[in-house]
Amino acid sequence: MTDSRRSPIEIDEVLFRTVGHQLVDTIAQFFDSIKERPVTSGELPKQLQEILGHSPLPEHGIPIEKLLTKVSTILLNHSLFNGHPKFLGYITSSPAPIGALADMLAATVNANVGAQILSPMATEIEKQTVSWLAEFIGVSPNYGGLLVSGGNMANFTGFLAGRTAKAPKRIKEEGLTGLSAPLVFYCSKATHTWAEKAAILFGLGANAIHWIETTADRKINTLVLEQTIKADKEKGYQPFLVVGNAGDVSTGVVDDFRAIADICKTYNLWFHIDGAYGIPAAAVPSQQGLFAGIEEADSLALDPHKWLYSPLEAGCTLVKDPNHLLETFSSHPVYYNFDNTEEEIPFQNFYEYGLQNSRGFRALKVWLALQQVGKSGYVQMIEEDISVSNYLFELASRHPELEAVTQNLSITALRYIPQGYNPSDDYLNNLNEALLNELQKGGQVFLSNALINDQYCLRSCVVNFRTSKKDMEEIIDIVVNEGRRVHAALRQK
C-alpha cells in the first residue's frame, strides 16, 4: 500500500516551476508590449465562440503545458485591455503588476477570510489594509470595515449598516412590514444605479428613493434636500440616510459634504459617501478642499480596483463605528466555532462585518501595492491622472470640431461637432452615439458615454498609470478623424 495519494489535478514541483516561469515570462512580455497592442479586438460573440471552439467537455485531461499556452494566446489576443494607455472607458483602472503576483500568492494560500481561525495572517493583513485605506483618504484609521467585490457591494454594505442603525430596532425581528412609517432615503440624480438596486433588493422599493435635483454645477442641492426631508417627515415618512457623491460616475463632481453632514446631524440621518471612484483624490493636497467633511461620514465606499490600480476585484467599505457592521451582519449559528474572547486581542471574524461568509483574500494585492508605492507614489499618480485629463479638456477646447463639456477630477466629457453645426442640433446626439460605438469597436481608443444636459457626450476617465499627454494628443486625432468618417456616412443615409 502506498502512503500517498496521486491525484490527476496535482502538478509536480519541476513541471509547476517550468510552466509557471513560462507564464510569468508571457505576462511580463505582455505588460511590456501593451502599448503596441489594440485596446480591444472588437470581435463579436460569434467570432469569439469560433476561436474558442465548440468541443464538449474533455473526457480525459489535457497536458498543462498545452493548456496554458493556448489560454495565454486566446486571452492576450482576443480581450479588451483596461491596462492599455488609451483605455479611458468606465472606471476600471490599469492593474498594478504586483497585483497579478499577489493574486497568485493569495490563491496558493487559499485563505477563507471569513473567520480568523481559518485565515490567521490574512485576517490581520486585511485589518491593516482597511486601516491604511482610511488613513490614506484622510479619515481616522479607527474606521473599521472590510474588502468586498466592488462599488455595488461596498455601497450596499454601508447602506445596510445605516438602515440598521437608524430604523426602529424591531426591524430585525419584524422586517419592514412591522414599521409604522415607510423608510426613505435621499440621493442626487447623479448617483450611481447602486442606490436603486439597494432600494429594490433590500425591500424598500424604488419609491423609497427621493431623488434630489442638482445645482448648475451638478452637486446635490442641499437646500432642496433639507426642504424635502422636512416635507417627508410631515407626511409621515421616516428618513434614514443621505448619499453624497465623491466623484459622480458621469462627470466626477464631488458633493458638498459639510453641508450634507450638517443636515444629517440635524435630522439624525446616516451619512453615506459613495467614493467608489473619486475618494482617493482626497489624499492629493491640491484636491483636499473638494472633500472637506468626509470625516463626518458614517460610512464610505471606495474601490481600490478603480483609482488605486488594484486588479479586479477589490472594493472596500469603511464605517466610523465598526459596531454598526456587527449589529447588521453578525450571526452565530451553532455550527460555527470561531470565537475566542479569552485572548488579549479578540478574534475579528470578517463574516460578521458583511454579506459574505466565505471570502477570498482580496486584501493582499491592495496591501502589497500600498507598500510598493507608498502614499507619495499614489498621490503622484493620481495628480498625473488629473493633469492628463485636464490636458484632454484643453486640447478639446482648442479644436474647432470638438466641444469640451465638463472636467472634474480625472473625468473629461467632450463632443464631436462638425464645422457649421449648431451645438444645440439634435443630430449631434445621434452622431456622437454612433461615433462612440465605432471607437469602442475600432481598438484605437476606448471611451464611454455621459448624458449631460440632454447632450450625448464622449466620456474619458483617466485611472491609468500608463496614460500620457501624448496619448491624449493622439486620442484627439483619432476622435476627429473617426468623427468625420461617421458624420459622412450618416449624411449619406
TrEMBL record:
The modification N6-(pyridoxal phosphate)lysine is found at K306. Belongs to the group II decarboxylase family. It comes from the Bacteria. Keywords: Decarboxylase, Lyase, Pyridoxal phosphate. SUPFAM superfamilies: PLP-dependent transferases (SSF53383). One of its GO terms (biological process) is amino acid metabolic process. GO terms for molecular function: carboxy-lyase activity; pyridoxal phosphate binding. The keyword Lyase applies. This is Amino acid decarboxylase. InterPro entries: Aromatic_deC, PyrdxlP-dep_de-COase, PyrdxlP-dep_Trfase, PyrdxlP-dep_Trfase_major, PyrdxlP-dep_Trfase_small. The keyword Cell inner membrane does not apply. It holds the Pfam family Pyridoxal_deC. Its cofactor is pyridoxal 5'-phosphate.
